[in-house]
């Protein structure tokens, strides 16, 4: 796989990019209005990247609306605590 001129991380499919997007939003605490919110197919490389611009990804928005994201965050916090012991 060649690298993209945008130097962004490449994902082979939209689904993989969406998974990464949700994972990123669960793993990090982004200040309001920052961080990746959507995925898009790149004109340069033909693969998918995450972006902080544009309308929010439908899957992520559902995830947040369901409150799953917060649950996952809580779970990650606990896992971190357990790891640090
Ligand atoms: Zn690209």
Characterise the protein shown here.
- The chain has 85 residues and is mainly alpha-helical.
- The protein has one domain (14-84).
- The chain is 46% helix and 9% strand.
- A two-stranded antiparallel sheet has the order 1-2.
- A hairpin with a 6-residue loop joins strand 1 (38-41) and strand 2 (48-51).
- Helix 1 crosses helix 3 (68-84).
Describe the protein's topology.
Layout (H helix, E strand, L loop, with lengths): L13 H14 L10 E4 L6 E4 L6 H8 L2 H17 L1
Helix pairs in contact: 1-3
Summarize the structure.
The chain is mainly alpha-helical and 85 residues long. It is built from three helices and two strands; from the N terminus they run H-E-E-H-H. It has one domain.
Which regions are unreliable across 5 or more consecutive residues at pLDDT < 50? none
What number of structural domains do the residues give? 1
> What oligomeric state do the depicted chains represent?
single chain
What count of helical segments does DSSP give? 3
Measured distance between first and last alpha carbons: 39 Å
Record the strand order, biggest sheet. Answer: 1-2
Per DSSP, what share of the residues sits in E-state strands of 2 or more residues?
5-15%
Helix amount, in percent? 40-55%
The average pLDDT score comes to 90
Category by helix and strand content: mainly alpha
Q: Could you give the order of the helices and strands?
A: HEEHH
Tell me about the largest β-sheet.
2 strands, antiparallel
Shape descriptor reads globular
For the secondary structure, the number of strands is 2
Rg:
14 Å
Bound small molecules, by name, code or SMILES, are: zinc ion
